[in-house]
């Protein structure tokens, strides 16, 4: 909210709440999810992992914790902007996977 992102109505959902979805693309960001497989019900979705350390787990001063959240938000913004700059209709599945991996390293 402090970053100007509307959060009204948003809340964490269990994976069971997503069981009916059939997304085309799944991007995981939790650092702990890197070794976990995406659930089977995501079927043929293109998958990418953009691991980010969870700033809520940081212990330190209020300023250090705020800086960690700001840094995480900045990395997410950079990656989303790079993703939105891709020409989606011109990328096949393998090219999209490669681009998503590249973006995940930003």
Task: Please characterize this protein's 3D structure.
There is one protein chain. This protein has a two-stranded parallel sheet. The protein has 2 helices and 2 strands; from the N terminus they run E-E-H-H. It has 106 residues and is α+β, with helices and mostly antiparallel strands. The radius of gyration is 16 Å and the shape is globular.
Summarize this structure briefly.
With 106 residues, the chain is an alpha+beta fold. It has helices at residues 62-84, 93-104; strands spanning 25-30, 46-52.
List keywords for this structure.
106 residues, alpha+beta, two-stranded parallel ribbon, 2 helices, 2 strands, globular
Structural class: alpha+beta
Secondary-structure element pattern, one letter each:
EEHH
Spans of at least 5 consecutive residues whose pLDDT stays below 50 are none
The portion of residues assigned to helices is 25-40%
Coarse morphology: globular
Q: What is the rounded distance between the termini?
A: 24 Å
Mean pLDDT: 84
Q: Which sequence of strands runs across the widest sheet?
A: 1-2
Number of helices: 2
Q: What is the beta-strand fraction?
A: 5-15%
Largest sheet: 2 strands, parallel
Rg (C-alpha, Å): 16 Å
The beta-strand count equals 2
